[in-house]
Amino acid sequence: MSAPVGQQGSGSGSPAIDIRAVSKSYVRGQQTVPVLKDVSFHISPGEFVALMGPSGSGKSTLLNLIAGIDHVDAGTILVGDTDITTLNESALARWRSRSIGFIFQFYNLIPVLTALENVELPLLLTPLSARERREHATAALALVGLADRMDHRPSELSGGQQQRTAIARAIVTDPDILVADEPTGDLDRVSAGEILDLMAGLNKSLGKTIVMVTHDPRAAERAHLVRSLEKGLLIDSDPADQKDHADPALHP
Ligand SMILES: Nc1ncnc2c1ncn2[C@@H]1O[C@H](COP(=O)(O)OP(=O)(O)OP(=O)(O)O)[C@@H](O)[C@H]1O
Ligand SMILES: [Mg+2]
């Protein structure tokens, strides 16, 4: 991590994500709630995937598994050569901080910190000096068009600007993969469009692989590939669209 985000390569090293026969249940008291049932799919390097489906169908659960925030009950998730389901907590945390940027519906910014300080946070886990941290965070904020709002606290930013700040925080460590859980869910149409433009740009110019959960058909339109979950099962929303992406190993 020698150069700030946006000044590095074009993401040619992005890994493929291979989700193989993943199942996940939650246990509550005596009750086991099955959430994902034998889900398999392949995400090619540099792809922009939208994940849709009704509320409760398991979208956020799948996203959290891909991001290494939660653990599978069965199956494997290969990211490049790394099977993240076999990593212990500290190895997983290291992998996550290097490889994944997470974007949330409600931004999850720290209210008492400025935009710049919020974006600097993930860099505290890296060996960068204070000066380098500032440099990288400044570059990330400039990249999302907030060079003139760095000293604002979240309450002094619009919703769209808060989401831009959150995107800057997600990309500041230059991860290969961005996962976004309803990133436009709390925004008006114009701001949502701007956030989607920004994400599409990060995908196209920097080669970031993006996995985005959304309920918004306009957001899904921006993706290369749309997959849908229903009651924990992955269904092909448009089989014709999936042809080029189908993995023969998974669909013999
Ligand atoms: N920590 C948990 N403990 C128990 N059950 C959970 C937990 N997290 C999620 N669930 C259950 O798992 C199911 C899937 O939840 P998930 O959050 O993945 O759905 P979703 O598709 O993201 O829905 P939404 O569109 O409303 O965000 C739901 O029935 C939910 O109640
Ligand atoms: Mg959800």
- Helix segment tally: 8
Task: Give a list of the ligands.
Answer: adenosine-5'-triphosphate, magnesium ion
Question: What sort of overall outline do the alpha carbons produce when their principal axes are compared?
Answer: globular
> β content, as a range?
15-25%
Q: Radius of gyration in whole Å, from Cα?
A: 18 Å
Can you tell me the CATH topology of the domain at 46-56 and 97-245? Rossmann fold
Written account of the structure:
The longest helix is centred in the last third of the chain and has 18 residues, at 189-206. The model is unreliable at 238-252 (pLDDT under 50). The protein has 252 residues and is of the alpha/beta class. The protein is globular. The strands form 2 sheets. A 6-stranded mixed sheet has the order 6-7-8-3-9-10, with helices on both faces. A 4-stranded antiparallel sheet has the order 2-1-4-5, with helices on one face. β1 and β2 form a beta hairpin. The protein contains 8 helices and 10 strands. It has a domain at 46-56 and 97-245: Rossmann fold (3-Layer(aba) Sandwich), CATH 3.40.50.300. α4 (130-143) packs across α5 and α5 (159-171) runs parallel beside α6. The structure holds adenosine-5'-triphosphate (ATP) and magnesium ion. Magnesium ion (MG) binds at residues 59-60, 181.
